[in-house]
């Protein structure tokens, strides 16, 4: 979904499968400029194929500039769990810039095998979940706010199998310029086999 000066309320996007994708740039994508983006994503399976697709990207990508975001990825019921595997740059990547507010709930998802594309021009390092409040391209600093959000109950990487691990951090949170994070709950996530991209500093949870 791409929106400029629009309102996009997707309702529920559920039980979709993208398996062994050899074309395209990723799994689920929402991109908005001066727009409202809303939706609930449950029970989807995104299995990318970076070996045979040089353009493969995040399993879930949300980018908002000067917008309002209210998005839930996953849920508390077992059937709500999304599965993201073999993603590039991030399993779930969220970029917020400019002005506006965002409420983001990432709950009970399974994220495995995330690789770093080694592109220094991006904010991503092969993280399981990356949420970044980043700088604006304009002369004015970004002021976007992440409010009343949670990252809970996710299973990221693997405790026993390095193939299912991550090049980057399990969860990476970044805030720059005049952005703000208010009431973010990060709890009950299971994170294993992170930081396999030797040479970069990574952690289970990185703020």
Concise synopsis of the structure shown:
The chain has 207 residues and is mainly beta. It contains no helices and 17 strands.
What do these coordinates show?
By secondary structure, the chain is mostly beta strands. About 0% of the residues lie in helices and about 55% in strands. The protein is built from no helices and 17 strands. Strands 1, 2, 4, 5, 7, 9, 11, 12, 14, 15 and 17 form an eleven-stranded parallel β-sheet that branches.
- Summing up helix and strand content along with how strands pair, one would put the structural category as mainly beta
**Terminus-to-terminus distance:** 29 Å
Shape: globular
- Please outline the major beta sheet: 11 strands, parallel
This entry's quaternary arrangement is single chain
Tally of extended strands? 17
Uncertain spans:
none
Q: What's the rounded overall pLDDT mean?
A: 91
- Element-level helix/strand string: EEEEEEEEEEEEEEEEE
Amount of helix? under 10%
How many helices? The count is: 0
